[in-house]
Amino acid sequence: MRRLARKVRDDIAEYRANMTDIRQEEKTIPHFTITAQHCPGSVIKINSITIIKDNSPVEKEINIDLRRGDHMLISGPNGIGKSTMLRAMLAGEGVNIGENVRVGYYSQDFSELDYDSTAFSALREVALPDKKDQDIYAAAGRFLLRGSLLQNKVASLSEGQKGLLCYARFMLQEPGLLIMDEPTNHINFRHIPVIADALQNYAGVLIVVSHVPDFVSKLKN
């Protein structure tokens, strides 16, 4: 009977914790700002890109020089290699990224996150050296990541929470270049106008792939 009672108590505690997480995710995040690193001159020069045409990779030489305040939207049908193109940029393939430029990256599958680390550690690893623990907790709180949730492993977070964790990382990192692959994937629809506003006002270089028309229109306006 004692074991049964303990199991019931544990089940109730888990249920309440899950309900708390659900209620948190149903809230709307407040407006936020991603401070851009000051990068004089060229932030990224794109010299070549590789796209998929007729199921084969095709490399094209281009000449695009993006500087602080430049935003570039990459669009096109599925299957032409847009995500691969962004990963190549991140790896420095076909591009020259300015010296000491901090790069923030949002991938569709959150491959930039270490699933074995805690949410707090994921924030601390990208935070600028002058950021204190209280700054990390404050940034996390803006994205509904609070309390014991920050001590949980990234793997245990919902997909929506992983997405919000990425935005908290950008706030703490203050990148000069943001590379974003479908940055509204897994994000609660309530948050999308807030995120669009933050990205529209981001003063660094933004390179983004998105298939969400409303989101794209907000970035263009």
TrEMBL record:
Checking Pfam families in the record gives: ABC_tran (PF00005)
- Classify the source by domain of life: Bacteria
Every copy of the AAA+ ATPase domain together lies at 68-219
Q: What is this protein called?
A: Putative ABC transporter ATP-binding protein
User: Which keywords describe this protein according to UniProt?
Assistant: ATP-binding, Nucleotide-binding, Repeat
Q: Name one GO molecular function term.
A: ATP hydrolysis activity
Alphabetical list of Gene3D superfamilies matching this protein: P-loop containing nucleotide triphosphate hydrolases
